From TrEMBL:
Name of the protein in its database record: Hydrogenase maturation factor HypC
InterPro entries recorded: Hydgase_assmbl_chp_CS, Hydrogenase_HupF/HypC
SUPFAM superfamilies: HupF/HypC-like
Family: Belongs to the HupF/HypC family.
């Protein structure tokens, strides 16, 4: 299953890219759809694209809910396997 998950921006890269962290897994993704991101911001990540910015509280709540229903590990594993979350 391919879920949109919260991810924290840990580095801004050239060409509309950034490194994000999803539950301890780091991945380079496109942030071209979201203007004005900074390191530390949270985004919703889906198939390798940051879709929009969310606040830290919303990210924490969403990650907790995903963990509660067992989907956070699945999203994390998909990233580890080379998927895009």
């Amino acid at each position: 299953m391919c879920l949109a998950v919260p991810a924290q921006v840990v580095a801004l890269l050239p060409d509309g890219m950034a490194t994000v962290d999803v539950a301890g897994v780091k991945k380079d993704v496109s942030v071209a759809l979201v203007d004005g991101l900074a390191v530390g911001d949270y985004v919703i990540l889906h198939v390798g694209y940051a879709l929009n910015r969310i606040d830290a509280d919303e990210a924490a709540r969403t990650l907790a809910l995903l963990a509660e229903i067992g989907q956070l590990d699945e999203a994390r594993q998909e990233l580890l396997d080379g998927g895009a979350a």
